[in-house]
Design goal:
By secondary structure, the chain is of the alpha+beta class. The protein is 49% helix and 19% strand. α1 crosses α2 (39-48). The radius of gyration is 13 Å and the shape is globular.
């Protein structure tokens, strides 16, 4: 699902875990595949346009959104949701 503020979105091949770096490595690769591009092009586009990957709290999706917009709102991302869930299960 792509929101009005998202440039693109991906569904991760596995549930978002507590390794945020793994999620952020996987997202541009998936979007590149979907768009017929290479990962490097997606990374360059993201940096040039001041975009960031936002982990959706459904714990499987990430959206490419404006870094400015993302930073203005307090929110829990997918990793935070997973951590809270793990705390509840302990």
């Amino acid at each position: 699902m792509v929101s009005e503020t998202a440039i693109g979105a991906v569904d991760l091949t596995q549930i978002i875990g507590i390794d945020r770096k793994a999620n952020f490595r996987q997202a541009p690769e998936l979007l590149a595949r979907e768009l017929g591009k290479i990962r490097r092009e997606i990374v360059k586009f993201r940096k040039e346009n001041k975009l960031t990957w936002h982990e959706i709290n459904d714990m499987t999706s990430m959206q490419l959104v404006s870094s400015i917009i993302n930073s203005k709102f307090g929110h829990l991302g997918g990793v935070s949701e997973v951590k809270k869930l793990l705390e509840l299960l302990q």
